[in-house]
Amino acid sequence: GAVVSQHPSRVICKSGTSVKIECRSLDFQATTMFWYRQFPKQSLMLMATSNEGSKATYEQGVEKDKFLINHASLTLSTLTVTSAHPEDSSFYICSADRTSGGATDTQYFGPGTRLTVL
Amino acid sequence: QKEVEQNSGPLSVPEGAIASLNCTYSDRGSQSFFWYRQYSGKSPELIMFIYSNGDKEDGRFTAQLNKASQYVSLLIRDSQPSDSATYLCAVFTGNQFYFGTGTSLTVIP
Questions:
Q1: Facing residues of A5 across strands?
Q2: How many CB atoms lie within 10 A of CB A81?
Q3: Across the interface, which of A1, A104, A110 has its CB nearest the CB of B43?
Q4: Burial class of residue B27 (count of CB atoms within 10 Å of its CB; 0-12, 13-18, 19+)
Q5: Taking CA B17 as the corner, what is the angle to CA B13 and CA B22, rounded to the nearest 5 degrees?
Q6: For B45-88, what is each residue's pLDDT tens digit?
Q7: Residues A84-108 pLDDT 10s
Q8: Quick check: A109 and B88 CB within 8 A?
Q9: A8 prior amide bond cis, ω within 30
């Protein structure tokens, strides 16, 4: 299967700081990547769709100025949580859309980043 | 109506039994269907995809697709305690992916 990495895997920061999370597709190019957030015992929640070379599309209720997304290349998307607060503490998961010629698009997930804001 | 619906469970089966997980979708034009497994505290892992009507088998897993009924299922044969996880159904319409909220499966030793 395709490999998607995320860095860091875990981060603890003070309230008010900004945190950057990287998502990389290691063995394929991804025009589209997705960012999800998941609170304990809850479902995945799509935050935004990141498209290479264009602005991200945010889901309703997700503040684009707080969650900055940059998809600078076909293998890298970053999510920056600006001025993080304790309520931003969550499990952030990215996925990359792999398009195979003649076959279906498939999402492959990164291992996730656990953010704790003190 | 949600795009993808799953019974949240929890579903409990004894070890060695067949676990049956079900999913329905609303967009009749949907092209591809996926099953992901998510262990507690981990990210989802793709276990199967299917896009033709009928059955697709991979080891102990069988995905079944019925486009007329807009129904996709996952059967896990000889269930093991290590299969205990949340199983997410996902659908690709050709433009967008939609995920179900997941079914929690517990395999009892």
A1: A24
A2: 24
A3: A110
A4: middle
A5: 65
A6: 999 999 999 999 999 999 999 999 999 999 999 999 999 999 99
A7: 999 999 999 999 999 865 557 899 9
A8: no
A9: yes
Distance from CA of A40 to the nearest CA of B (A): 8
Instruction: Please tell me the distance from the alpha carbon of residue B17 to that of residue B60, in angstroms, as a whole number.
Output: 11
Contact A93 B44 (CB under 8 A): yes
Cis peptide before B10 (omega within 30 of 0): yes
User: What digits encode the pLDDT tens for the residues A4-41?
Assistant: 999 999 999 999 999 999 999 999 999 899 999 999 98
Residues written for chain A: 118
Residues 6+ apart with CB under 8 A from A68: A79, A80, A82
Contact B74, B48 (CB under 8 A): yes
Helices and strands (H, E) in chain A, number of each type: 0, 11
